[in-house]
Amino acid sequence: MIDFFLSLDPVIQAGIATMFTWGMTALGAAVVFATKEFNQKLMDSMLGFAGGVMIAASFWSLLSPALEMAEAGPTPAWVPAAVGFALGGIFLWGIDKVIPHLHPTSPVEDAEGIRHDKKKRSTLLVFAITLHNIPEGLAVGVAFGALAADSTTASITGAVILAIGMGIQNVPEGLAVAMPLRRDGMTRRRSFMYGQFSGMIELFAGVIGALAVAYIDPILPYALSFAAGAMIFVVTEEVIPGSQEEGNKDLAS
C-alpha cells in the first residue's frame, strides 16, 4: 500500500493527503452524533498538540526545503524564504481583516464588531473555519507538488508528516463547527454536514497548490515559504489562542 502511494503522481498524492485531512475534519464533526458536550480539556490538548506539529512541519517540511532550493538561485538563500514567508502571513492577515467572520469561540453578538442573529452566526462560523482551511490545503499541496520537481530536498516523509499534522488539527476544527451549530438549534445531521464541509476546501486547495508548483520550478522556494507563513499565521492567530481561551493554558502549552 505504501509503495503504491509512493508510485503515484505528486498531484494525486496531494489529493489523497488532503482527502485524509478532510476526513479528519468529518471525524471531529461526527462527535456531534455521540455527545451533547465535548471534554474541553481534551479539545484544548489536541489544539495545543496540533499547533506544535504545525509549527515544526512549517519549518522542516516547508521553510527548510525552501532555503536549500534557493541556494542554487541568483539571490541569497534567505531572500526567497523571507519574502515568501512574509507574503504568506500578510496575505492571511489581509483576508482576516477584510472579510468579516466569526472565530469558533466568538460570543453570539460579536462577529468582529458586527451584530448578528444565530443564523448569521452559524454562516460566519462555517466561513471562518473554511477560510483558514485554504492555506492548510495549499501547504500540503505545495509540499507534495515540490516532489514533482525531482528536488533532492523535497521529502515525501516531510510532506506526509505535514498532512498528518493537519489532520490532527482538523479534528477539533470539525468539532468546533458542529457543536456550536448544534447548540444554536440545528439538527445533528445538518451540524455534521456543515462541520465536515468546512474541511472539503482543503482537497481543492491541495490539488491547486500541487499543480502550481509541480511544473513551475523557479517559484518553489517562494511557494513553500508562502505556505509556511500562512501556516504560522493560522497557528498563532487561531490554534494557540483557541487552545487557551477556556482557561487550560498550561495544559495546552
Fold topology:
Elements (H helix, E strand, L loop, with lengths): L1 H6 L2 H21 L9 H31 L7 H21 L19 H28 L10 H28 L4 H27 L5 H25 L4 H4 L1
Helix pairs in contact: 2-5, 2-6, 2-7, 3-4, 3-6, 3-8, 4-8, 5-6, 5-7, 5-8, 6-7
Fill in the keyword field for this structure.
single chain; 253 residues; mainly alpha; 9 helices; 75% helix; globular
What does this entry look like structurally?
- The chain has 253 residues and is an all-alpha fold.
- Helix content is 75%, strand content 0%.
- The chain has one domain (9-245).
- Residues 107-116 have low confidence and may be disordered.
Distance between the termini: 36 Å
What is the H/E order?
HHHHHHHHH
| Alpha carbon gyration radius | 18 Å
User: In which range does the helix fraction lie?
Assistant: over 70%
Question: Which spans have pLDDT < 50 for at least 5 consecutive residues?
Answer: 107-116
Tell me the strand percentage band. Answer: under 5%
Structural class by helix and strand composition: mainly alpha
What is the typical, i.e. mean, pLDDT? 79
**Mind summarizing the main beta sheet?**
none
As an assembly, this protein is: single chain
